[in-house]
Amino acid sequence: MVVTREDEVMARAAVEGLLAGVELTPKPGLPDAREADLRGLRWSARALEPGLAAMAATARRTGEPGKGLRGELGAIGRSTERDMARADGGAGLHHGAVWPLGLLVAGAVLAPGGTVEEITGLAGRIAAYQDSRAPRVATPGSAVSVRYGAAGAKGEARAGFPHVRRATAALRTARDGGAGEADTRIGALLTVMATLQDTGLLHTAGPYGLREVQDGARDVAEGRLSLDDFDRRLRERGLRPRGSGHLLAAALFLDGRR
């Protein structure tokens, strides 16, 4: 596989979106500059770059969404997850981020200069194909998806990443209203948290934990709860809305291409 400079630039842009989300502080319930090992988070994120570049090269070579592209992206994604695990000693600091970022990198390659809607739509078309080489092993996310009827990461992707579209719209709206960049990004994160059916939260905290995150995000957005109090509540109860963090990173990636 030939990886071009263009592919590497695309991969770096996706990782920069992930890093921008990581470094955003304060973030309710999620690692940020106050408590996290940012050096370790950055090192782990950079471990995704070669895999994302390979995904970009694969999409460029294939030229259209299809079963073959879906299978190749899946294989590269699993290898990339293993590389990241080696980079961070198995801590799983960005576990799951390669799924949305990889699909959106492929969508961006297939639609050069495309809008957010065009890119997410293409990513959804790719995700709709079955990956025949994927291991047939139930995961915690797939189990709770079945149990609670939650869309999960696969459902989000197959629907064309509606929460990524909402987050990018929230970014534009906040900036147009004169908000500072940090507040703009926190607002986009809360937009995702308020409605995302995060299967990671469902697995660790059940439907009541998920509802607490969703209700709290809406309360902060509507001024009924302070961001600090919301953050304190999530940390005290061990509620980690990582799925929302990954989708914010995806939104920041697409937003950075405008």
Write the layout of secondary structure elements.
Blueprint: H1 5-23, H2 38-46, H3 49-62, H4 67-87, H5 98-110, H6 116-127, H7 140-148, H8 152-158, H9 162-176, H10 181-195, H11 199-221, H12 227-236, H13 242-256
Indicate the low-confidence ranges by residue numbers.
Answer: none
Count the beta strands: 0
Q: Can you give the mean pLDDT? A: 92
Number of helices: 13
Strand content: under 5%
Q: What level of helicity do the residues show? A: over 70%
Class by helix and strand content? mainly alpha
Task: Write a brief structural summary.
It catalyses: 3'-dephospho-CoA + ATP = 2'-(5''-triphospho-alpha-D-ribosyl)-3'-dephospho-CoA + adenine. Residues 58-77 are annotated as: Disordered. It is built from 13 helices and no strands.
What can you tell me about this protein's structure?
This protein is mainly α. It has one domain. Helix content is 71%, strand content 0%. The chain has 13 helices and no strands. It has helices at 5-23, 38-46, 49-62, 67-87, 98-110, 116-127, 140-148, 152-158, 162-176, 181-195, 199-221, 227-236, 242-256. Helix 3 (49-62) packs parallel to helix 5 (98-110) and helix 5 runs parallel beside helix 13 (242-256). The mean pLDDT is 92. Pfam families: CitG (PF01874). This is triphosphoribosyl-dephospho-CoA synthase. Its EC number is 2.4.2.52. One of its GO terms (molecular function) is glycosyltransferase activity. It catalyses: 3'-dephospho-CoA + ATP = 2'-(5''-triphospho-alpha-D-ribosyl)-3'-dephospho-CoA + adenine.
